[in-house]
Amino acid sequence: MTGLATDLYELTMGATYLALGLDAKATFSLFVRKLPACRSYLVAAGLEGALAKLRDLAFDEDAAEYLRATGRFDDTQIAGLVSTRFTGDVWAVPEGRVVFGGEPMLEVEAPLLEAQLVETMLLNAIYYPTLVAAKAARCVSAAPGKTLIDFGMRRMPSIDASVAAARACYLAGFASTTNVLAGRLLGIPTAGTVAHSLVELFPSELEAFRRYASTVRGGVTLLVDTYDTLSGVRRAIQVARELDSGSAHVEAIRLDSGDLADLAVQARRMLDEAGLTSVRIVASGGLDEYELQWLESARAPIDAYGVGTRLGMSADAPVMDMAYKIVSYDGRPCLKLSEGKATLVGPKQVWRRRASDGRFVEDLVAARDEPAPSSDWEPMLEQVVSKGRPVQAPPLQGMRLRHQQEMRSLPRELLELDTRDARYPVRLSPLLEDRQRRAVDDVRRREGIDGR
């Protein structure tokens, strides 16, 4: 029934295409028109899930009956929709790579009906992971060398979204997730402590720590801020001394509220004075890249951060203008001229140039059929589906390593959290500019539009 996971107009347009015999090859382009105001780059993510949806595109008999019951489609149209499977080609920017506004992240080339029907599912699969991956990458940049843990599952829009977010975070450099399902499905390392409720169950915080430690195998992380944080640290120290080093041991304490920088300084001093220099400090509680940057600039002795709600909801930039638009049909260029929503014609490639030090210099959006500008430019879009069959993709760990290389190649100004003056150049090739101009002139002439 995956075919029904779409907007109604995809199906009504599809029915029209069937009725009119419009079945030639079409190219659609997926792109972000412009970056959110507080972003200087995005991180391509979600492609693996998008391709799985393409592979699974289908309508079962229940779906056919539902469409029939709406009264919007005749039997011939329903039969045409139900028999549709994706048989086309897809080019896409590999996951983990950095992308910018105004350049295609993915292009679909397929018979018109197939290319149209997959619009909603592709946007849905790529939009959210790309938002989260970009914010996660900013968190990693804000706290270099620190361990970051995805804490956001409980406040995600859905369980599926939480798995997608955990994957996007790991892709962008997070060390682990609290999401056990993501760990099982994706092989992402899992991490976690306890909630305050466990501490509150027992007559005293000390007894709670002792009872919890007695049941845990390996390293124990104690949550110390249920009542009074520094008192909690003292009790954690007491339990750490009591534990037999051959069984469980206290490996970390977690701070979840209050002035994290000041509390971390005091906790570190107390732990060190007790000879517990190896016990780490984990901080959490409403964190994102801005708070991480502040804590790092304050030299807070924090070893790891749990980042949750603000990351999973991309709180400072929850919306971006991502679109999926037709750019050619049956060899003819297609475009929109709408103010602020104009599109670029034809199948495309994005070329990226590096400086001698390996850092990115500029991107060039070109026609797919034109050659590379020169040998020092690299193509961004790779063929990921051929005749309906996905091309073998690297494992998640490989995507993660690729992303790390990307971040080392970003211009330094793009890594700053204040992005008001950070803009990366993306321009059009002369050939694409010429084709665009000709297509615009043709539409204006055909539609009787004043070109002034």
Task: State the secondary-structure class.
Answer: alpha/beta
Give the number of DSSP strands.
19
What share of residues is helical?
40-55%
Instruction: Report Rg.
Output: 26 Å
What count of helical segments does DSSP give? 16
Average residue pLDDT? 94
Largest sheet: 7 strands, antiparallel
Strand residue percentage: 15-25%
Distance between the termini: 49 Å
Kindly report the spatial arrangement of strands forming the biggest sheet. Answer: 13-12-1-5-3-17-18
Shape: elongated
Low-confidence stretches: none
What topology does this entry show?
Layout: H1 8-20, E1 25-32, E2 42-43, H2 47-56, H3 61-70, H4 75-82, E3 89-92, E4 98-99, E5 104-111, H5 112-117, H6 119-142, E6 147-150, H7 159-171, E7 176-177, H8 180-186, H9 196-201, H10 205-215, E8 219-223, H11 229-242, E9 249-255, H12 260-273, E10 280-284, H13 289-297, E11 304-307, H14 309-312, E12 322-329, E13 332-333, E14 348-354, E15 360-367, E16 377-379, E17 382-386, E18 389-390, H15 396-409, E19 426-428, H16 430-447
Parallel strand pairs: 6-7, 6-11, 8-9, 9-10, 10-11, 15-19
Antiparallel strand pairs: 1-5, 1-12, 2-4, 3-5, 3-17, 12-13, 14-15, 14-16, 17-18
Describe this structure in words.
This protein has 452 residues and is an alpha/beta fold. 40% of the residues lie in helices and 20% in strands. It has 16 helices and 19 strands. The strands form 4 sheets. A 7-stranded antiparallel beta sheet has the order 13-12-1-5-3-17-18. Strands 7-6-11-10-9-8 form a 6-stranded parallel beta sheet. A 4-stranded mixed beta sheet has the order 16-14-15-19. Strand 17 and strand 18 (389-390) form a beta hairpin. Helix 2 (47-56) packs antiparallel against helix 6 (119-142), helix 6 packs parallel to helix 13 (289-297) and helix 10 (205-215) packs across helix 11 (229-242). The model has no long low-confidence stretch (mean pLDDT 94).
